[in-house]
Design a protein that fits this description.
This protein is α/β, with parallel strands linked by helices and about 425 residues long. The protein has two domains: about 220 residues, Spore Coat Polysaccharide Biosynthesis Protein SpsA, Chain A (Alpha-Beta Complex); about 180 residues, Hexapeptide repeat proteins (UDP N-Acetylglucosamine Acyltransferase, domain 1), CATH 2.160.10.10. Helix content is about 15%, strand content about 35%. The protein is built from seven helices and 40 strands. The strands form eight sheets. It has a nine-stranded mixed β-sheet with strand order 5-4-1-6-11-8-12-10-9, sandwiched between helices. A nine-stranded parallel β-sheet has the order 15-18-21-24-27-30-35-38-40, with no helix packed on it. Strand 4, helix 2 and strand 5 form a beta-alpha-beta unit. Helix 1 packs parallel to helix 2 and helix 1 crosses helix 4. It is globular and about 65 Å long. GO terms for molecular function: glucosamine-1-phosphate N-acetyltransferase activity; UDP-N-acetylglucosamine diphosphorylase activity. This is Sugar phosphate nucleotidyltransferase. In the N-terminal section; belongs to the N-acetylglucosamine-1-phosphate uridyltransferase family. In the C-terminal section; belongs to the transferase hexapeptide repeat family.
Length: about 425
């Protein structure tokens, strides 16, 4: 038996974050999201794993090797080349090896123990299975059409609204069924969809069953706010208090926190867990870190800076008098003194964000900014809710940003 992790996607809906970091390396509670599918495979005792790569493949390979060393599993990489869908990705693996396989999409946050337990019976008894999760709005997902325990087909993004069982992107497939990926045809989206293998298998007398997991154990990472949601779910499960860094006796730490080695927490800083703080991060003095915040390695959060329910990636600096609320700040960003990120509209309505040219409902009343890697703001910059600032962009002092800023753009006056 082998494991297959699909990690080739370019994450267009997550831009500008994915302009400088692959989708599967987006952080969830301090770990790249691909860690969680790999951990599931490790818990199932699968020693041979194939990771399908394409976009920014060298970076993915480097990081996955570190993870698999930690989990003690062997990994081989398959270059998908042109990413023509999930079915095409699996076909690339089948061209190299054919065996019973656990297949997991690489952009899923998973509660590893729960998911591995849900799969164990199928793996032991060797029957085809799809993992499902009950969601409140099935129109956003692939819907499992079921008859008892049997899955009849998967309908991508059905027109109906309301509750339904969504495809969680996790499968166990016997080798003789897996071979049917060679019979897949392009979907209306112009891709080879792995989900079509279920209908093909049924036509040949092979069945798929489904098992369910809780929504609190699963989150796909499609949009920026999904990343915030996954981070919150993961941190809620942080049932420990582990402090390995240097914490001033004048700092206050409440609740469950993880503070990594060589991190420094300076005096008068107040941290409310659950919070993750990475290696060599420097927090304070007089900083306020609020619940559900992840701060990665070598980040500097300085004097009178408040961070609430946000993700701040590696080597980013917010040194003075800054507010970061419900936001995602990519790596190597510098926020000038007095930069404020608004996260609440005056009318308290749901915040929408421009995604691939369309205004998309985030389903969040509070949502701040998404700032791409290596961007800079000057002093006293204000950023409105739901705004995206592209990577390598520069916002001049005193500017108020009301709409998205493209990558590699210099903004000298109010951006309306």
């Amino acid at each position: 038996m082998i494991g297959i992790v699909l990690a080739a996607g370019d994450g267009k809906r997550l831009r500008p974050l994915t302009e400088t970091k692959p989708k599967v390396l987006m952080p969830v509670a301090g770990k790249p999201v691909i860690y969680y599918p790999l951990d599931v495979l490790s818990r199932l005792g699968i020693e041979e794993v194939y990771v399908v790569v394409s976009y920014m493949k060298d970076v993915v390979i480097e990081n996955v090797k570190e993870i698999t060393d930690e989990l003690s599993i062997n990994v081989k990489f398959i270059d998908q080349g042109n990413a023509l869908g999930t079915g095409h990705a699996v076909k690339k693996v089948v061209e190299n090896v054919l065996d019973d396989a656990v297949i997991i999409y690489g952009d899923l946050y998973l509660n590893s123990s729960t998911v591995s337990n849900a799969l164990k019976k199928a793996v032991e008894k060797r029957f085809n299975v799809v993992v499902g999760v009950v969601v409140s709005n099935i129109s956003k997902y692939g819907k499992l059409v079921v008859d008892g325990e049997k899955v009849l087909e998967i309908v991508e993004k059905p027109s109906e609204n309301g509750t339904g069982v969504a495809n969680a992107g996790i499968y166990f497939v016997k080798s003789k069924v897996l071979e049917l990926v060679n019979e897949l045809r392009k979907s209306p989206r112009g891709e080879y969809e792995l989900t079509d293998i279920i209908s093909i298998a049924r036509s040949k007398g092979e069945e798929f069953k489904y098992v369910s997991i809780s929504l609190s154990d699963w989150q796909d990472i499609g949009y920026p706010w999904d990343l915030l949601k996954a981070n919150k779910i993961a941190l809620e499960k942080l049932a420990l208090r582990k402090v390995m860094g240097d914490v001033s006796p004048y700092a206050t730490i409440k609740g469950h926190v993880y503070i990594d080695e060589e991190a420094t927490i300076k005096g008068a800083t107040y941290i409310e867990g659950p919070v993750y703080i990475g290696k060599e991060a420097v927090i304070g003095p007089n900083s306020y870190i609020r619940p559900y915040t992840t701060i990665l390695s070598k980040v500097h959060i300085g004097f009178s800076v408040e961070v609430k329910e946000s993700i701040v990636m590696e080597n980013t600096h917010a040194e003075h008098l800054t507010y970061i609320g419900d936001s995602i700040i990519a790596e190597n960003v510098n926020l000038g003194a007095g930069t404020k990120i608004a996260n609440l509209r005056f009318d308290n309505q749901i915040v929408k964000m421009m995604i691939e040219g369309k205004r998309v409902d985030s389903e969040r009343v509070k949502l701040g900014a998404v700032i791409g890697g290596y961007a800079k703001t000057g002093i006293n910059v204000s950023i409105m809710p739901g705004v995206k600032i592209g990577s390598y962009s520069i916002i001049y002092p005193g500017v108020t940003v009301y709409r998205d800023v493209p990558s590699k753009t210099i903004v000298k006056t109010n951006w309306i």
